[in-house]
Amino acid sequence: MWRKCLFLLLCLFLLPKSWADMASQTAYLSKSQTLEEFLHDVPAQTFFPEATGYGEVQEKPHLVPVMKGTTQIGYVFLNSDYVNAGGYSGKPIKILIGVDNQFTIRALKLVKHSEPIVLIGIPEKKINAFIDSYLGRNYTQGNKAGVPDVITGATVTVMVINETIARSSLLFSRAVRSEQGEQTQVIAQTPDVPKTLLEYQKDAPAAGDWAQMLKEGDVAHLHLTVGEVNEAFATAGKKDAAGISESDDPNATFIDLYVAEVSIPQIGRPLLGEALYQQASKYLKEGETLILVAGKGLYSFKGSGYVRGGIFDRVKIEQDGEGFHFRDRNHRRIGDIMIGGAPKFPEIALFTVPADKNFNALKPWTLDLLAHRAVGPTKKEFIEFKLPYQLPERLLKEAPNPDYQPPKPATVKAETEKSESISSSEMTAGNQTVDAVDEEMPTPLWQRLWQAKTVQIIVLAVALLILTLVFFFQDFLAQHPKFYKKFRVIYLCFTLFWLGGYMTAQLSIVNVFAFTHALMTGFDWSYFLMDPMIFMLWAATAASALLWNRGAFCGWLCPFGALQELTNNLAKKLGVKQFKLPFKVHERMTAIKYLIFMLLFGFSLYDLGLAEKLAEIEPFKASIILKFARAWPYVEFALVLLIIGLFIERFYCRYLCPLGAALAIPAKLRLFDWLKRYPTCGNPCQKCAQECPVEAIFPEGNINANECIQCLNCQVLYHDKKRCMHLLEEIKKQQKYAARAKRDRERLAALQGEATE
């Protein structure tokens, strides 16, 4: 009863604070987070070294001119004035963007963000370096350069930055042109229409063997040695990377890379074999192209990034200044190249170029190989090598272009009609969405991120379904202790190595803060949908907490919890002595995590950034997300907790985890309690209480649902006829009754025999 009262008092304490903070937060966003405020701290010379200062701030569109004396040389605007710049935290990622009069980006300045992985974990200079890669882009000429190299561990953040820079730059240029009446439309007779077109020569002969295909250009080849790569890094000024070699032998093969366009029959049939070529061609849609990539050597062109991110980030196709990466759904593994004389390759990939890439298989293109070397725990240096490809001349022919007409002089006129401009209602300042149709980005970012992780989403959905079945059929599983024990270890390994190791899908108390602030400052589902794995885990955790308690996540889906349990199991097998605190001491210490949560939550209402820094009480970033590649104090803290966990199972979960405390509060409203107990549990039997990994069973025998992690150990004991005291007594009673019944039957039979005589 007192716990329920405490819960209600906590709600009453926090709600008025939330209401008051909601109003203050809204005022903060509308009054202080403005272009004018940031201009005080960022001089005009940041964007244009030759500038003498800023001009007068304009409200419609919201911008400030950059002046050189009395001459305007460009503009500066705030991205969040034109697009919804909300990041993974739900807070806007605010960037000042400086463009010249032709709308080419001259400089960018990150002025405010609340991204947890950047505040704590990834150095902000990495994000700044990523932002600087947009220098020189002009989005009025299209988004040809694509997304720069993604930063490991901050994929969602950098994708949001890419989206907001591209969209805000495009919308800003439209707004300026519309306001000034300078939006133009060129009236000309289909410019750049060539006189002739290239066509595929269907009756051209095929090459006879591998050597001939290389000689005639059916297959393009790039060979790099370790020494050549070292030299390339050194020439690029990346001396640290130049000094880190994959081999001591400079003549060792770094990579031997081959590429071919196998949708062409004369190339595809010899390389793939007739059966595979026919199968691949059968599913090829109109406008799609098949590209074969094979490689061997010390460097893999595939890497491992596509496993967790769905993108092959080491190779890229470029044509006519536009580039794109392949995704896992466009990939198919192949065992061997079939043509005679071809070498054996450990890596062969068949990629499908989607029709929406507007790839012209008859025109020249290049395969870009991105080579990288780790020069620190969290730092890598990159360098790019290009492998050009063009179909051999024997496979091409020229034909007249029926659409060609001699060009006429172009005329330009101003177009100021309302239909061609962006209305003021489509653009709002601050944290509001721009409802403008952007042909450069036809689908929302979160949808593209979900599409890119289709396979991973299916895997996690199956894992969650299996866990749901475990909860529903726990009585059946608990009756098969050997199978259940093995199953639990396998599931925890999946959670640790796939969910945590590959997908870095670790929930955090920071997510709770972000959700709370989103409710206070304008909730938008798109913030939380940007990471499919985290969203699915939160949905499953919320549902299971209301149905049972926090155990589904804490006991099964938390990678750090799995790491603690697996390492403790190993310690037990090695004979490490386990320590158990007296129950009264243990019970008082469990309150620590609730105090930590309330303190962090209170700080988050005052200053979200400060709360996120204090949330380093969670070792998740150091151990799971960044895999111990952090500054030594963070790694040391995580290791200390794991070492203590070798002696006290799940020490961090029991006493320090604020996320577990946060999840325990709504679990007070749980609908079901399916964990069974006998009347004798706790009096006198203490077997379950002694073996509970988190001491979630009171000496009286009842289960503390706030601390229970649903490991089902007590349910296995509940059905164990060799270890459960209640069942042992029942068996003894049954045996006693059976023996008595047997004696009675024997006595009755004897009496009947005497009567017969």
TrEMBL record:
Presence of keyword Hydrolase: no
GO biological process, alphabetically ordered: positive regulation of DNA-templated transcription
SMART domains: FMN_bind
GO cellular component: plasma membrane
The protein, known as: Electron transport protein yccM
Region (Disordered): 398-425
Organism listed in the record: Suttonella ornithocola
Keywords, in A-Z order: Cell membrane, Membrane, Signal, Transmembrane, Transmembrane helix
InterPro entries referenced in this protein's UniProt entry, alphabetically: 4Fe4S_Fe-S-bd, FMN-bd, NosR, NosR_regulator
Signal peptide residue numbers: 1-20
Transmembrane segments: 457-477, 489-515, 527-548, 591-611, 631-648
MF (Gene Ontology): DNA binding; FMN binding
Subcellular location: Cell membrane
